[in-house]
Amino acid sequence: MSVNSIVTPQPHYIPGYTGHVPGYTYKLGDTYGSLTHKILLDPTTTHSEKLVLSDRTVTDFEVTRPTKDVIDIVDGRKQTRDAKYAHPMVPAYAGFVPMLRGKSGMTYTVAAEEGVAEFEKNQMKKRAAEQQLERIVGIQSGKWEPTIEESQLVKT
């Protein structure tokens, strides 16, 4: 007896699948896997032109998360801020993590790091806007002194 004789050929629904299998209720006498294999390949069974089930390898849909830029942003906080948000985030951390709420479909570590990175990006935008506003107020009031780089810029 070979292994191929006991393994259900592809494609087939995995036993325990609770979704719709067209024509399954009217077929008897085989295991779930072999019966769904026959149903999926039967030309008389109505189903979509493209089969939902396909032979995929892990690399077809593998995504590396968190991304390198998220890790860099999270690790960059160590230099200027509290280092409790550092890569890798501790999954059992029960304290507050900014921007964590509403992130589902990923591990806690990935969600926490992406939340911290998103928060840090928002903070950088706010700081840049505040500096721009302070510069504009300084220019309008006459108290602003340009830096060497700004004074060397040619106005067009």
TrEMBL record:
Its main location: cytoplasm. The lineage of its organism: Eukaryota, Metazoa, Ecdysozoa, Arthropoda, Hexapoda. GO terms for cellular component: axoneme; microtubule cytoskeleton. Keywords: Cell projection, Cytoplasm, Cytoskeleton. This is Ciliary microtubule inner protein 2A-C-like domain-containing protein. Pfam families: CMI2B-like. It is found in: Cytoplasm, Cytoskeleton, Cilium axoneme. Belongs to the CIMIP2 family. Residues 10-42 form the Ciliary microtubule inner protein 2A-C-like domain. It comes from the Eukaryota.
